[in-house]
């Protein structure tokens, strides 16, 4: 690696504490073979990761999963994060967030809870019809407010729930959300398996953006709404994780360090485990983290493209999933020779549906079945 | 929030945290899943916004620390902007 591409510190550390989860979301980005990865590193290992990360200059800590609340050492991890000076973000479905647990996490120094609406079908239906899940989320939202945390909500949208966006925003507002992230599904892992059922039409998207804009105008600053656009429909590659190994460092439940939470799918790359190597060596010197840094790895059309520093060729996982070549241009880019694969998926979404295979829920049974060797 | 006067006592807004980052050699303001890097003067103002000092005291301290005069306008302009961003709050 030359000096020009030597990265700064991993400002964002994402701790995926576990793949265990009470939900079975069809758009989950956890690996399809998660059920085979039952190994979880210890509390002491996580504390070592936090100390090494903070010493390098990491400042934001995401505590994620799976459902991070299933780890009963979460309070201990949060307390150490606070002591070290991390800003800690708990990304949760809220299941398991009792008043007692919220208090303990607040005392430990947790800075922020992002409450997600995860399950695309039953939970969303319950949510939309004000039944038991809505009641649960409402209770959790109150618990979050009572602790003085900012109220940040996240909803993953797709073909099956995007038309309810008006109700979704209204309910977030009723619950007192200060920030609402409306995130279009990104098609990796389980979402990729379910893509045909989840990809919205152009018209659905256009309407959703219009409804979002109307709410923004109505609510002003009282609730900020972020609408994360889907890259399939835009024809433009995104600078994935703000550049490979430039800012984000994910540690998977088993201690594998990754440049992004889906990078383990890429063939031929190896990523070290935090139990075997200091985080600093992993970040600066491991082959896995250096492989796609900068632009030296690119082939055409990326290597001569005037936008190559802007999008860094897009997402490597998407290139691998769609073009079957992790070194290729991200096929969402109109210049990609495989862009027709994305166009085909988007135009298939416009057609009326006849035959569909069932949605694949992210659960251990499906995980084992799909990854049987 | 009311209009800013020399008696306003701003403090860092809820959900935000201000801290010095040696690795970045600057003050940063942290918030849910994000970070603002502050330049030198913004950092000097913000670190004095602790809910205990009013604008007059902050201005006087800065004028002493940097051996200069006439900072009130700049301080008020910054606090106003920071209030809009929710970085600072006051009653």
Numbering strands along the chain, what is their spatial order in the largest sheet of chain A?
7-6-5-4-3-2-1-8-9
Radius of gyration of chain B: 13 Å
Question: What proportion of the residues of chain B is helical, as a percent range?
Answer: 25-40%
The gross shape of chain B turns out to be globular
The N- and C-terminal alpha carbons of chain B lie at a distance of: 6 Å
Mean pLDDT of chain B: 94
What's the number of extended β-strand segments of chain A? 9
Can you give a write-up of this model?
The complex is a heterodimer of chains A (373) and B (91). Chain A has helices spanning 43-56, 74-84, 99-108, 122-128, 132-146, 165-174, 189-193, 195-198, 202-219, 279-285, 287-290, 308-311, 316-323, 339-350, 364-370, and strands at 12-16, 60-64, 87-92, 112-117, 151-157, 179-184, 224-228, 248-251, 257-258. Chain A is α/β, with parallel strands linked by helices and 373 residues long. In chain A, strand 5, helix 6 and strand 6 form a beta-alpha-beta unit. In chain A, helix 1 (43-56) packs parallel to helix 2, helix 2 (74-84) packs parallel to helix 3 (99-108) and helix 4 crosses helix 5. Chain A is globular and about 55 Å long. By secondary structure, chain B is α+β, with helices and mostly antiparallel strands. Helix content of chain B is 34%, strand content 21%. Chain B has helices at residues 40-46, 55-65, 72-84, and strands spanning 11-12, 17-21, 26-31, 34-37, 88-89. The radius of gyration of chain B is 13 Å and the shape is globular. The model of chain B has no long low-confidence stretch (mean pLDDT 94). Chain A binds chain B through residues 9, 11, 56-57, 59-60, 62, 85, 87, 89, 111-112, 114, 148-150, 152, 179, and chain B through 14-15, 17, 19, 21-24, 28, 30-35.
């Amino acid at each position: 690696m030359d000096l020009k591409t030597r990265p700064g510190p991993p400002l964002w550390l994402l701790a995926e504490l576990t793949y265990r989860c009470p939900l079975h979301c069809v758009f989950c980005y956890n690996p399809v073979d998660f059920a085979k990865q039952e190994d979880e590193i210890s509390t002491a290992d996580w504390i070592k990761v936090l100390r090494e990360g903070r010493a390098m200059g990491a400042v934001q800590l995401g505590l994620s999963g799976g459902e991070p609340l299933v780890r009963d050492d979460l309070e201990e991890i949060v307390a150490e994060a606070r002591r070290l000076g991390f800003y800690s973000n708990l990304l949760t479905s809220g299941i398991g967030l009792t008043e007692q647990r919220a208090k303990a996490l607040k005392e430990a120094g947790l800075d922020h809870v992002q409450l997600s609406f995860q399950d695309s079908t039953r939970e969303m239906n319950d949510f939309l019809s004000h039944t038991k899940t809505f009641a649960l989320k409402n209770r959790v939202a109150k618990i979050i407010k009572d602790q003085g945390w900012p109220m940040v909500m996240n909803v993953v949208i797709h073909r099956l729930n995007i038309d309810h966006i008006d109700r979704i925003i209204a309910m977030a507002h009723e619950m007192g959300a200060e920030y609402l992230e409306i995130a279009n599904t990104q098609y990796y892992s389980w979402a990729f398996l379910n893509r045909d059922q989840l990809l919205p039409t152009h018209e659905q998207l256009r309407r959703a953006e219009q409804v979002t804009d109307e709410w923004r105008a109505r609510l002003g600053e009282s609730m900020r709404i972020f609408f994360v656009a889907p890259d399939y429909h835009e024809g433009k590659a995104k600078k994935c994780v703000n550049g490979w190994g430039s800012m984000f460092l994910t540690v998977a439940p088993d201690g594998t360090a990754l440049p992004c939470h889906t990078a383990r799918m890429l063939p031929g790359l190896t990523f070290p485990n935090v139990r075997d190597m200091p985080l600093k060596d992993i970040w600066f010197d491991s082959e896995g983290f250096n492989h796609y840094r900068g632009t030296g790895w690119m082939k055409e059309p990326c290597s001569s493209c005037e936008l190559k520093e802007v999008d860094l060729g897009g997402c490597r996982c998407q290139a691998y999933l769609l073009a079957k070549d992790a070194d290729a241009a991200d096929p969402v880019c109109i210049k990609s020779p495989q862009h027709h694969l994305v166009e085909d998926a988007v135009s298939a979404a416009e057609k009326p549906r006849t035959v569909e295979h069932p949605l694949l829920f992210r659960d251990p049974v499906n995980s084992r079945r799909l990854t049987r060797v | 929030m009311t209009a800013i006067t020399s008696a306003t006592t701003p403090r860092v807004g809820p959900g935000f945290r201000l801290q010095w980052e040696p690795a970045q050699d600057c003050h940063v303001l942290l918030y849910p899943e994000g970070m603002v890097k502050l330049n030198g003067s913004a950092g000097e103002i913000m670190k004095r916004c602790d809910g205990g000092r009013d604008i007059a005291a902050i201005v006087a301290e800065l004028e002493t620390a940097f051996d200069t005069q006439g900072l009130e306008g700049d301080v008020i302009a910054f606090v106003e902007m920071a209030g809009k961003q929710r970085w600072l709050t006051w009653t």
